[in-house]
Amino acid sequence: MKVSSINGVKIYHCSAGKTLPQWFDKAKTVKSRKESLRKDEAYRRRIELIQDFHYPTAANTLKVSPNGEFLLTCGTYKPQMKMFELSQLAMKFERHMDAQGMRIEFLGEDYRKFVVLRDDRFLEFHAQFGLHHKCRVPKFGRDMKYLRSSCDLLIGGASSEVYRLNLFQGEFVSPLASSLKGVNAIAENPIHGLIAIAGEKGGFECFDPRTAKRVAFMRVPDSLSRLDARAAAEVMEGGPGVSAVEFGGDLSMGIGTDSGHVMLYDLRAPAPIVCRDHRYGLPIKRILFQEQPGKGKKPRMVSVDSKVIKIWNGEDPGKLFTTVESPAPINDVCLYRSSGMVLAACEDHRMHAWYIPQMGPAPKWCHYLDSLTEELEESTKTTMYEDYKFVTRKQLEAWGVQDLIGTDALRAYMHGFFIDVKLYRKIQSVADPYAYERYYQQQLRKKVEESRASRISMKAKLPKVNKNLARAILTQRERKRTRMEENGDAAQAQEEGDEEEIIDQRFKAMFEDENFQIDEESKEYARLYNNRGPTRREQEDDEEDDDSDADLRVAAYDRTMDQGDFDDDEDEASSVTAAEEYGLRETRMMDTPSGYSATHLLDKKATAPEDETALSLEERLKRQAQRKAAANQAEKDAQNYSSVGKFGQYSERRHISKRLVAAKRKIMSR
Predict the structure, then answer these.
(1) Distance between CA 663 and CA 96 in Å, rounded?
(2) Which of 100, 340, 499, 652 is most open to solvent, judged by the fewest CB atoms within 10 Å of its CB?
(3) Among 134, 141, 196, 181, residue whose Cα is nearest residue 163
């Protein structure tokens, strides 16, 4: 017995494993004691709920008798029926038919009277001894219902009429005339006797059995559009036909469509209370209601398609209670009353049975299931969808594999489907062939970033002042250590890496005092460290300012020269010597770093050396005072008008040199 848990509800599959004949066949092929059935764990833990609970090929339908003591099933091949006595957990009798049975109705409380609707337009009436009578229906039948109040047997099929066979009179009476082209399902309300008929094109009608007249008509897609227009469009697209109908009390009714939608109606309201989708796109084959133990509790609605059995919460109809998945396509389902037993006829040689303890206790004919489930709760339960990947309907449409909906490749769950991981990877490789390449490039970039991070690690704590400068110093130190390691000087690299201080202690104030904060938004910083030239407007402003600065510097130089002791009668040699000395100073000035003014070189006497020993003391003091005054004036001019440090070295070389050459020529002309 396999155990699974879906939505927190434990489900025990009582028909899992091999049948007894299959175990006998295996026992005949055993060649050693190690392969003996005694040591086979699956054989020792087998559970055979009912003996001979199988058919050679498949089972078509099944139903429990009103008294709950017998179970009647029909299957193939060869077409046959089996009656099981549940109290004995064994088959009571087996009968063969000429065609397959589609629907079963008990005419009494037990097995003594029942009728079978075959797929060849015949009805078979069986009694305790065997076949009692056989009659033909005008059209192929799809469903039938026995009305105990009037002894009428209603047969609906490929016709707009619902045939009525009165078993008390033994003849057909006037049919129920409907506006439907075909009748798919018939239901009777057990309280007030209202008859519901559902058929093709989304039609739904209600009849009063006393007058055999229609009392209500409704189109399911139109009524559903009042609740959910999108669901109504899906119903119209998937097939508007109504495939199943059932009453769940005096005022509740469940309807299933060909598109796989399930709706719960209140007979007093024109729109459904709730609508849910099975998400397989398969027709709903059966709708049932399970009474819950206790007073005042609403019954649970059970909807069935060929793949799953969905059980909905009674108090909250829109909430899913649990889902039972069958290993084979489902043909019909019945619930054993007031219990958690679910029986299903499938396209399999075995008929399957599930026990759900949270739905109700085990039936009295298999009460031992309660003790078995308590033992299994202590063991490890299997996990559903362990090797599956969840996908949505939009993803399937994007990949172009929406045709898989309804097949064994997908399992509907919540708002999407579960798909096998292997199939998911194959579909992804075809739909997106470059997905792996993108993943590879992403992982490669990640590895490269990790290697770069390990190459230069910022372990030291950076200061608050001039943080970028400290980071640059630390980065330079790390690169230096890396080069040392590459050159083989590991010891020195280790010493270099062990230093905790980022900077020299002599420049400690530069990273602690906010007055030393470097303004990175200034023009000087941008020109020195961003490696960009000045803009056109900056160049024009520089030229204007440099011209005025150059004029001031030349004026200061001329003032110094005029105040010097060069006389008109000075010989050519002294002039040439002064010119050479001035040219040397001009060269030195052009090589000075940016930020030094030209007047810094003119603070001394820019004249040729002269022997003043021959002069009188008064004359020498006078000349010394003149030189001192000229130097003070030049220094003042330099402080007020110098802008070489502001605009850079390139403007000084371009403009100042012209003025100095003119001054040089003036000296030489003297």
Answers:
(1) 134
(2) 499
(3) 141
